[in-house]
Specification:
It is built from two helices and twelve strands.
Length: 206
């Protein structure tokens, strides 16, 4: 009887062990979320994230347009502004110069500004240049004696006029060589003052 009771106890213990060993892992695995499950999003966190994204980089608030300060009125006697000057050149009556005839030119400078202004019309500043193609033939800025400046007061609308003639000889900046006579051909004369350029005066030497 004692032996039978002992056997029954052993069988019962083994059965209990098997049953608990099979059900234990299932409980553990059922408690863990499956990899494919989508985590729930907390509405409060989602709202905070949206608020943070909206305030992280705020769009710039357009600033009011700064009014442009009014330009200071020009005073009489100040240097002329290039935008107020009109430079022009006119050739002589004949565009063909034969024999020893010298080409002649008339240069005018007009102040269109509101008040009288001053401009340097010396041979270096207001240059008359003669070219033939890319060849620089003659210029009033070459071989200038003295300071080469001449300041003039230009009243509004009253032109400054300069007349000059060309002796048909070439010029150079160094003035160390005897100038040679220009060959027959076509030439172009222009007046220059700073960044201002007159129209081209085309003439011919024969």
């Amino acid at each position: 009887m004692s032996v039978l009771v002992a056997v029954l106890v052993v069988v019962a213990v083994v059965a209990w062990a098997c049953s608990s060993g099979g059900s234990g892992p299932e409980r553990a695995s059922s408690a863990q979320p499956t990899p494919s499950a989508t985590p729930a999003i907390d509405p409060l966190l989602a709202g905070l994230r949206t608020l943070a994204m909206g305030t992280a980089s705020p769009s710039p608030t357009p600033s009011p347009t700064t009014p442009t300060p009014a330009a200071r009125p020009r005073r009489p006697g100040e240097p002329c502004a290039e935008g107020d000057l009109v430079l022009s050149l006119q050739g002589g009556k004949d565009q063909i110069y034969a024999g020893d005839a010298r080409p002649a030119f008339i240069v005018t400078l007009v102040n269109t500004g509101p008040v009288m202004c001053k401009a340097d019309v010396g041979p270096r500043s207001m240059e008359i240049r003669i070219t033939s193609g890319a060849d620089r033939i003659w210029s009033t800025a070459d071989c200038v004696s003295g300071v080469g400046t001449e300041t003039k007061e230009l009243e509004r609308g009253v032109p400054y006029v300069r007349t000059l003639s060309w002796d048909r000889r070439r010029s150079s900046a160094d003035c160390r060589t005897t100038p040679s006579t220009a060959l027959p051909g076509t030439y172009v004369a222009t007046a220059r003052l700073g960044r201002l350029r007159s129209g081209k005066g085309v003439f011919h030497l024969r």
